[in-house]
Design brief:
Elements (H helix, E strand, L loop, with lengths): L2 H15 L3 H34 L3 H50 L2 H6 L2 H43 L1 H48 L1 H6 L3 H54 L4 H42 L21 E10 L2 E11 L4 E5 L6 H6 L9 E6 L2 E2 L5 H6 L1 E4 L10 H5 L8 H10 L3 H6 L17 H15 L3 E5 L7 H15 L3 E5 L3 H6 L2 E6 L2 E6 L1 H7 L2 H10 L11 E2 L5 E2 L1
Parallel strand pairs: 3-8, 3-9, 6-7, 7-8
Antiparallel strand pairs: 1-2, 1-4, 4-5, 9-10, 11-12
Helix pairs in contact: 1-9, 2-3, 2-5, 2-9, 3-5, 5-6, 5-9, 6-8, 6-9, 8-9, 13-15, 15-16
């Protein structure tokens, strides 16, 4: 990380500290107290030695005992005060930063999540933020408290013997040299080890969420190996950092020892000569020895700061990722009108890969459009553009003649109900999953939505009815049940525009019919785009649009399209072929090539 970037990070972290200045000020007073008491203790060695031990003044024994005791008590109190206050500030800042990071994650565009693995992001919000906490609370505390202490003790040394003090100070920079050197090294190692922790989190997340597939494909061993590789990598980085860290202490100790040996020989000489008293000399030596602790702590602090800034760099990297397209300054709420949809010359690329090429489509209010096409044709992509999950690369999408980029994102999304290809549910109660868009909905409305989605019966059969927790992604439900909950959620939202990416999970004919009925209830009276994988959906649509290779190639009603003998006929023969005697769909190979019964 270049130095100017590092300065930038310090500045940003400092900005977070600023609002807490009054706590910091009190903490600083406490730290000054710690430093003053420490210096006073070193200072007191002279009167104790000279007055009590050499001059044998009895009255001084009492006085000095009380003073020393007071100094220790004061030091303890101040230390406690500064520790509490600084932790408060540090933890507070980190809680703020974590919240900020989370809020920002919620505002990032889908394309960001396409790029970043979940586990990695989780590692950023937890591990990295904790490292910053270490940097902020420990480092600021140490930096102030320990440097005050160093100054106080140095003052005592100069007071006792300025010449000797001057010479000792020459040795000190040597003690600091390894500190600076190792700090840089540690930051590099820390960056690598945190990145490695991110990789571990990614594997962890993937294999826990996808454990069923790991088991089904017998990949436990493979995953164990994969994890073990990352785990060992992390172990090695940690070991490296321990080595560097552990090396800086003995090195400093050695240089410290050098200073002490020098002081004893030179100072002893001066006492023998009678230039200074034994008390003065021991007071000096005490200060020098006491200096060792804060300097050692200061050296560790540098490491903590280096780790913290490396972590802060990664956190700010996310915070600096531009959020989802902001509303234009003149954006207005989408006016409530008739909900006519127009897709005009739309092109779209994921990165550099063109997916949609010049798509034109008009949907009148209340019309149900079925979109069909082979897998990967661009159907999901096309409908993702309407709630602006992704921004069109070229062309425009208009609702009632208004470009959707001219309206506020929140008002646009409020008018659109979405049922996605993957059923996405949360580890919460059935009730909260249905009422996800607006958790203040009344019980009656929620029940009505569940009934319309043909879900009421199965919900009531569950142990705790609407209060049943359905597990992460709804794992405790069947595929069809999950779909019906998603449909109930969209029904409750009651949005005038509906986007439906039919899920392709195989359902038996009874469940298929249940879901179909639920879908029909959902589509009634709404402007609907439905990516159809079921014949029944296609037959119920007002118009069918065939997408091939990012373009609309055919449009019309089922029977019209069947006459043309084009792409639709081919798709139909291949995928929607119907063999049935009680007018329900029997074997239908859906668009993705899976088999539905
Ligand atoms: N997030 C993404 N990043 C990059 N490319 C993507 C992304 N999502 C889809 N694609 C690519 O865009 C193309 C169209 O994908 P899309 O999901 O729109 O297909 P689809 O018609 O919905 O297919 P299916 O019927 O299988 O759902 C595919 O080639 C796919 O690989
Ligand atoms: Mg799709």
């Amino acid at each position: 990380m270049p130095d100017n970037q590092q300065r930038d990070i310090y500045r940003r972290l400092l900005k977070l500290v600023k609002p807490h200045w009054h706590r910091l000020a009190i903490a600083m007073v406490c730290m000054l107290g710690v430093a003053a008491c420490t210096a006073a203790l070193a200072h007191l060695v002279k009167p104790v030695l000279d007055d009590v031990f050499i001059e044998k003044k009895a009255e001084m024994l009492m006085v000095l005992s009380v003073v020393v005791l007071l100094a220790f008590a004061m030091k303890g109190l101040s230390d406690w005060g500064q520790a509490y206050l600084m932790s408060y500030v540090g933890q507070r800042i980190v809680a703020q930063l974590r919240q900020k990071l989370y809020d920002h994650l919620q505002r990032l565009p889908l394309s960001f999540f396409d790029r970043m693995p979940t586990g990695l992001l989780m590692s950023r919000v937890t591990n990295d933020v904790n490292l910053i906490q270490g940097a902020v609370s420990n480092a600021v505390t140490g930096l102030l408290r320990d440097s005050f202490t160093v100054v106080g003790l140095a003052a005592v040394m100069f007071e006792r013997d300025w010449q000797l003090a001057l010479v000792s100070m020459v040795v000190l920079p040597f003690a600091f040299f390894p500190v600076v050197k190792f700090g840089r090294m540690l930051r590099r190692i820390s960056t690598k080890s945190q990145e490695s922790m991110g990789d571990i989190s990614v594997i962890l997340h993937e294999t826990i969420v996808g454990n069923r597939i790991v088991k089904a494909f017998g990949m436990e061993h493979y995953e164990k190996e994969r994890f073990s590789k990352e785990n060992m990598k992390y172990f090695k980085y940690v070991l490296k950092s321990v080595m560097v860290r552990a090396l800086s202490s003995p090195l400093m100790e050695f240089f410290g020892g050098l200073a002490i040996v020098f002081t004893i020989s030179y100072g002893g000489h001066r006492v023998i000569q009678g230039v200074s008293t034994p008390g003065g000399f021991f007071s000096f030596l005490t200060a020098l020895i006491m200096l060792y602790q804060p300097i050692k702590k200061l050296s560790r602090i540098n490491n903590v700061i280096q780790e913290g800034t490396a972590a802060a760099y990664r956190v700010y990297d996310i915070l600096d990722t531009p959020p989802e397209m902001e509303d234009r300054v003149d954006a207005v709420p989408l006016p409530l009108m008739e909900y006519k949809l127009e897709i005009r010359n739309v092109q779209f690329r994921y990165g550099n890969v063109p997916v949609l090429k010049n798509v034109n489509l008009e949907v009148t209010a209340g019309e149900v459009i079925a979109i069909v096409g082979v897998s990967g044709a661009g159907k999901s992509t096309l409908v993702d553009l309407i709630p602006r999950f992704y921004e069109v690369t070229d062309g425009a999408i208009l609702i009632d003649g208004m470009d959707i980029r001219d309206v506020t994102l929140s008002s646009l999304r409020a008018q659109i109900g979405v049922v996605t290809q993957q059923t996405i549910l949360f580890n919460d109660t059935v009730r909260n999953n249905i009422a996800y868009g607006d958790i203040r909905r009344s019980e009656e409305e929620i029940i009505a939505a569940a009934k319309a989605a043909n879900g009421y019966d199965f919900i009531m059969k569950m142990e705790r009815g609407f209060d049943t927790i359905i597990g992460e992604q709804g794992v405790r439900l069947s595929g069809g049940e999950r779909q019906r909950l998603c449909i109930a959620r969209a029904l409750l939202k009651n949005a005038p525009i509906l986007i439906l990416d039919e899920a392709t999970s195989s359902l038996d004919s009874e469940a298929e019919m249940e879901v179909q009925k639920a879908l029909e209830n959902l589509m009634a009276g709404r402007t609907t785009l439905v990516i159809a994988h079921r014949l029944s959906t296609i037959q119920n649509a007002d118009r069918i649009v065939v997408i091939s290779n990012g373009r609309i190639v055919e449009e019309g009603r089922h029977d019209e399209l069947m006459e043309c003998d084009g792409e639709y006929c081919r798709l139909y023969d291949m995928q929607f072929a119907q063999v049935d005697n009680n007018s329900t769909v029997k074997i239908v190979t859906n668009v993705s090539g899976q088999v539905n019964k």
